[in-house]
């Protein structure tokens, strides 16, 4: 996952985000570093609470401040550090340059405005065009995201549309200003499998046609396999494995990544019960010593309990934060 500056559109370095609660400081993102390249699709995967959404909320500058705070690190886009840029500059970037598809469209869409007028409003915010032109463009976008009877649907309210249809409206809105980066936060979680496949096809098609870079946040490895060239695996606010998708999917080298893969039901195996990663995610207010994954790890040794491993580059170019990554990597062979 080497640095290719000419091709890098977003560069996140040593990002740290904490939430300040009555019980103390909760470190949600603990020194995350990655880059997103032009035109690529990069996946971030991990269980709930691993820091995925806090990372992208920091990129969009949508963290609730307080209780949240970006403590350290840089988020470079077009030579600007988004982590420190004034809100008025963020208003120019957010939506027009970096757009986001939220997990639950019903809460992200305004219930008392028609979907057409909501898309038109997003267009008017960043473009000097008339209201009539914006309304026409809204209908075109609804057609682009394959909503049937687009003119009629533009006059509908969110509650009159199905979940899949609302998600398409969200995609249309996100694409309304032709952003360079599209962040999709669990875009298919609430949808059934058939609709999920259609939404992923749509995102693939949009990326191919517009060259938009996609940062895809999910807990679903199947979605990552279908959509991404590279993957970042997060656990307890840190990146534990990152690199090209094929080697990581064929031979995970972090015990947590291996556990995620083992938890997926396989069509070619008849098993009594599914594999689960034992234990639960560490309490960030009272974390374990050493590696935060060690209480759940089948490879745990004394060193793991004492020293938190740093990300290190392996022979195939991936980066892994595990003292015994080589042993884990040979395990599935």
How would you describe this protein?
35% of the residues lie in helices and 23% in strands. It has 13 helices and twelve strands. It has helices spanning 52-60, 87-93, 105-108, 115-126, 131-144, 150-154, 163-175, 193-210, 221-227, 245-250, 255-262, 302-306, 325-331; strands spanning 8-21, 24-37, 41-45, 68-77, 80-81, 98-101, 181-185, 213-218, 230-235, 238-244, 312-313, 319-320. Strand 9 (230-235) and strand 10 form a beta hairpin. Helix 7 packs parallel to helix 8. The longest helix is centred in the middle third of the chain and has 18 residues, at 193-210. It is globular and about 65 Å long.
Following the backbone from N to C, one meets helices and strands in this order, namely EEEHEEHEHHHHHEHEHEEHHHEEH
Largest β sheet strand count, sense and barrel closure: 8 strands, mixed
Tell me the structural class. Answer: alpha/beta
Low-confidence stretches: none
Rounded average pLDDT: 90
Q: How large, in whole angstroms, is the Cα Rg?
A: 21 Å
**How large is the count of helical segments?**
13
Query: How far apart, in Å, are the first and last alpha carbons?
Result: 23 Å
